[in-house]
Every structure is written in C-alpha cells, then in structure tokens.
Amino acid sequence: MKALNYVAAFLGGAALGAAAGLLFAPEKGEDTRKKIAELLRKKGIRLNREEMDDLVDQIAAEVKDAE
C-alpha cells in the first residue's frame, strides 16, 4: 500500500509539473486547456469544461504560491 502511495504521488507531481509547464507556455489559454484535456484523456481522466477550469485555477494557484 505504501508503494502505491509513492507511485500516486509521483504521477500526481509529474502531471502537476507538466500542467504548470503548459500554463507558462506562450500559447492562448484555450489551446493550453485543450492540450491539458488531451493529456488527461490519454491517462484515462475525463473532465468537463467546468472541472478543467477548476483544475487550471488550482494549478495556477499552486504555482503562484510556490514562487
């Protein structure tokens, strides 16, 4: 069970890092959201527009707090 927690934490951190990288890319927000949604779909995670907006807001807040 402990190993599963480490794997989940690693994957969550990797996803958060990738998403933060996309957020700071010089692209329009709509294009960035599409890329995040596509990445999540490939991982088997499906979010509607509102859930995606919430996720982006959470990631942006985390990144801002880290600065």
Automatic annotation (TrEMBL):
Keyword set, alphabetical order: Membrane, Transmembrane, Transmembrane helix
Lineage of the organism: Bacteria, Pseudomonadati, Bacteroidota, Bacteroidia, Bacteroidales
Transmembrane recorded as keyword: yes
UniProt cross-references to InterPro entries, sorted A to Z: YtxH
Protein name: YtxH domain-containing protein
Short name of any one Pfam family annotated for the protein: YtxH
Transmembrane segments: 6-25
